[in-house]
Amino acid sequence: MSVAWTDTTHQIAGGKLHLSRAGSGRPLLILHHDIGTADRLPFYDTLAGSYDVLVPHHPGWGKSERLAWMRHPRDIAAVHAWLLSELGLAGVTLVGLGFGGWIAAEMASQAPSAYRKLVLVGPMGIKPPEGFIYDQAIVSYIDYPADGFHDKAAFARVYGDVTTDQLEQWDLCREMVFRTAWKPYMYSQALPHLLGGVRSPALVVWGDDDKHVPISAAAVWQQALPGAKLETMAACGHYVDMEKPDELARLVTNFVNAN
Amino acid sequence: MHLMYFTEQPMAAYDAQEGLKYGATALTFSNRHFNPAEASRLYNEYLEEYVLAEESGVDGIMLNEHHNAPFCMQPRTNMFGAILAAVTKRVKIVFLGNPLPLSENPVQLSEEISMIDMISKGRVVSGFVRGGGQEQLANGVNPAFNRERFVEAHDLITKIWTEPGPFRWEGTHYQHRVVNPWAVPVQKPYPRVWIPGVLSKETVIWTAQQRYPYIALNTAIDATRTIWDTYSKAAADVGYTAGPENFGYLIRVHVQDTEEKALRNARQFMWMQGEFTGLAHPVWANPAGYFSPSGRRGFVEFAVGRARNPRGQPTFEEQVRDTMIVAGTPDQVIERLKHLIEQTRPGIMGLWGNDGTVPREDRRRCIELLGKEVMPALREHGAKLGLKDPWEANAPVHLRYSTDIPTLRAAAE
Lengths: 259, 413
Known about the structure:
The complex is a heterodimer of chains A (about 260) and B (about 425).
Chain A: E1 6-12, E2 15-22, E3 27-31, H1 42-48, E4 52-56, H2 73-86, E5 93-97, H3 99-110, E6 118-121, H4 143-147, H5 152-159, H6 164-181, H7 191-194, E7 202-207, H8 217-224, E8 229-233, H9 240-243, H10 245-257
Parallel strand pairs in A: 3-4, 3-5, 5-6, 6-7, 7-8
Antiparallel strand pairs in A: 1-2, 2-4
Helix pairs in contact in A: 1-10, 2-3
Chain B: E1 2-7, H1 16-22, H2 36-56, E2 60-63, H3 77-87, E3 92-99, H4 106-119, E4 124-129, H5 133-139, H6 146-162, E5 167-170, E6 175-179, E7 195-197, H7 201-210, E8 214-217, H8 221-238, E9 247-255, H9 259-266, H10 282-285, H11 296-303, H12 316-321, E10 325-328, H13 330-344, E11 348-354, H14 360-384, H15 406-412
Parallel strand pairs in B: 1-2, 1-11, 2-3, 3-4, 7-8, 8-9, 9-10, 9-11
Antiparallel strand pairs in B: 5-6
Helix pairs in contact in B: 2-14, 3-4, 4-6, 7-8, 13-14
């Protein structure tokens, strides 16, 4: 299946925001991980077969310009909400991956009725009651993403022999994480209190071997988001979209298509 | 020439095997290996040694701070500075320096330095540093804003020292409702500020733009000259000619009555496996956003083991050969250092005398020989070469106090 992606640039909040878009149907905004994203991934391609899929790069990540004043994922959330508004899209489903899940939740908390549905995959953003969110500040550029996979072969399949360009990109991503989520590290103390008003049905997905965000946080998400469903992915790490792309696409499709 | 004594104050009283076993002696190397009774003994010995350094004739005592590591016992440089203000009479108390970005409250930092300046009756040199990468991690301070915090904290502190309060500070990283500390330095316009560093070109240029002396920390001769070139160009750009009073040099020197003993003890400079700041994961030393964007590629390769440390990791023998470590009898050391001084022409020199597990008696002997024999010879040699320190040169404390820059003079008039 070949998918025709279109790359565009949008002037948002003082910087250029990069957007990849493909497919048609209901709009799906995919918010990528803290380690950035490849331009194309099987998970994106599969969803683009059924939906109008939008994959922006967060400001400062990948091909989007850094906004020097940005200090919190909710700033990133506002930028993406601005993008949707500029594109004239309504009733969008948010698919937040890891760090992107936190951004999606911030978007929903700021506009509780605006989004059709929410899919949060191993989201950061809430302090786990047991364990800690993995501190990337003290591990190397390869160890951090590699530890986000249950199966090391899956990491190798996605990243191959990691290039120096990729390492540089990960360092830039890491710097952006520090600029926006340094303290408290990777969670908001306010967010759990602000999700109660969200009207969008929510699906929370967790890899059962997520070393980045302890699965103990899932219960807090379910408590905070009224009616949220939890799906656990067996033999899977933090990067569910890269380790189990077909399975995750199926879960998302079933959830999005349901009334 | 201003000649200082320096030691990292090593906390060497732990089982070195534990560090080797763990594979690191910094940041996460457990403090269960820290023995407070031994540290109490060492603190008091180091204090006595500073007093001995003053008695032996050194011009200044250089102090610093580090965190989470045995290589340096000072987590707060101002603490020893305050003690030295009371127990010494003559020496300059040279902070190299207070790590500004680590401070959440630069106003309080200014108060501490001011108190020490007053108690010491104006003997403070208030050096400032960015703090190494792992210091940011140990203190929970965002490495991505390190340089911005450094500059803003500096601007706030020097404003406190030069303008009467109360005033309000609404900066990017610091906000203070009422800045009005009832503690300001006795030295006017403010204590001399020296900036130590190793590598970062941006810091060298910023330092030259302030007209603050830059103190190269144990860099090789070639690297030191490169730093001076960078500094001199930046100085010329803002309208002055840099001289020896703008340059300082810290060098590891161990002196004993016999060469054999000196060389044996000097090997202790390598006790942290050759790393100044302990054996550490390279990622800790250069967390994302901490280092210059221009160095990003080199450091990410180093961090995953694909490249050598951009700072190099020379062996003991290489360091002795390259005059990064000088060891021997007073005559031998003087000869080597004279050569070094001729090559680098600093107005300020720090002699890092003791490290690791050098026995107490040897540490004291080293200090005596440094103060009574080595430093007088260097002072004389420096005078012959016209190497004036900032006081001898009557150098302005900051660029804005320059009297030799026509545009500044015009602006002031």
